[in-house]
Amino acid sequence: MRIADAATVRLLRPGDRVDVIAAEERGTGGAARVVARGARVTEVPKPLEDTGTGGALVVLSVPRAAAAGLAGASATARLAVTLW
After folding, report:
1. By C-alpha distance, which of 38, 65, 50 is closest to 10?
2. Which of 13, 32, 23, 17 is nearest to 62 (CA)?
3. pTM of this structure
4. By the 8 A CB rule, do 41 and 13 touch?
């Protein structure tokens, strides 16, 4: 998943547990919702280049049902994580 805040991703380590929060764009009401609870961080890939404000990638392990919700949310909202 691409998390909006790259600095937050740099704090994560494999094995961490996170909640993934989708924040809708302000033009659509700006509502935030939890789309995955207790997702396990499996990998934090090193960036190939400076992405600027493009966020950062993190690989998460979630149940199959949550994966579809995450994929859908990433298409319409900015994703954030909270560390357990």
Report:
1. 50
2. 17
3. 0.85
4. yes
